[in-house]
Amino acid sequence: MAIMPFPEIDPIAFSLGPLSIHWYGLAYVAGIMLGWYYARQIAGNNKLWPGDVSPITKVQLDDFIIWVALGIVLGGRIGYILFYDMPAVIENPIRAIQIWNGGMSFHGGLMGTTIAMAIFARRNSVPIWSLFDIVAAVVPIGLFCGRIANFINGELWGRLTDAPWGMVFCNQYIERNNGYCPGGDFVRHPSQLYEAGLEGIVLLLVLAVLIYGFRALKSPGFITGVFVCGYALSRIFVEFFREPDAQLGYLLGTNWLTMGMVLSTPMVLLGIWAMLRARRQAALQH
Length: 286
Description:
Blueprint: E1 12-16, E2 19-22, H1 23-43, H2 58-91, H3 106-124, H4 128-153, H5 172-178, H6 191-213, H7 222-239, H8 259-285
Antiparallel strand pairs: 1-2
Keywords: Cell membrane, Glycosyltransferase, Lipoprotein, Membrane, Transferase, Transmembrane, Transmembrane helix
Pathway: Protein modification; lipoprotein biosynthesis (diacylglyceryl transfer)
Subcellular location: Cell membrane
């Protein structure tokens, strides 16, 4: 029996006539807006940057928010289709725009945002690695908001467990909307909260300490490397507790290799490369 009860929270935050506003959508808005505010504080502090001059103005950052929002949403949805749901979309193409069927992929959102950053940096003469660093510093805020929304929705639950903090991911709202409890009447790891803690809170604090305590932004690309590597390691760890997507299951062996692990493993190497590159460039400049 689960010791911790799953909260009775309606996935619909509120309704405006026939329009229902879900917590999941509000999480995306909150993550982008809070990230934008934090990014403005970082960009406005010249002492954090090489030569004590910020590489981007607040006005440019305000323009960039539209680019990054499009990169997150389009990349996240396209990535989910390509990595997790392609057979179902081929069979029923309209499913591609049904974001309630599967949702978004972080790895796809990362690629979409990277493309948006590259185009924006080129068009506005902003050093691309410094732009990467700004975004990397604030992404954990969005990850935290998104994982909390996943928890409220009772989705992306964990594997079966007998841990005292295990939960049955069902309440009256989920059962009413789905006609049943998608996760079954089983006690599971609240893996969404594990991800919110590691990918969100812990990673945000680590990056903040590096930025403000060690002036890591003065080595363009280092914060990006720490974020990419930190996220990947956190995700791989949590995948041992998270139930894999039903349409994919385990990719190899029994109960261990998942698509999340496969997509995250190259990120560890990429993050290490970015950190080494940043340190090497900083050494050459001195």
